[in-house]
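Friendly challenge for the regulars: who can give me the C-alpha cells for this chain first? No prize, just bragging rights.
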Amino acid sequence: MLNRLPPHHFVRRTHGNAVFYVYADPTVCDCLYVGDQAAYDNYQSYRQQKMLADEQQMTAGEYRDATWNWNAWGPDDRPRLGRMEPVMGQYNAGW
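First reply, four minutes later:
Bragging rights claimed.
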C-alpha cells in the first residue's frame, strides 16, 4: 500500500460512515500514518501554529541581526518644541 499511494500527501478514504486520512512516508519512516477526522484536524492546527511560530521567530531574528544599524532609530530625547511630527491620513498640498 505504501508504494501505491502518493508520497507525502494526505489521501482521504471513507469506510462506511467513517472518514480516515492516510499519509504515505517512504522517506523518513517507510510507513503509513492513518488517522480519523479529529486527528487530521489536530495535525492541521499544529501545522498552522508551527508556521506562525516559525514566522515570528524568523521576523524576530531579522530585527536582532547585529549587521543592522539601529542607532539612528534609537531613543529621541530632544525637546518636542518646534519639531515636525508625522501626521497620518492628512494631505499636505506642499508635498
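The CA atoms of residues 79 and 85 lie 12 Å apart. The mean pLDDT is 78. Your move, everyone else.
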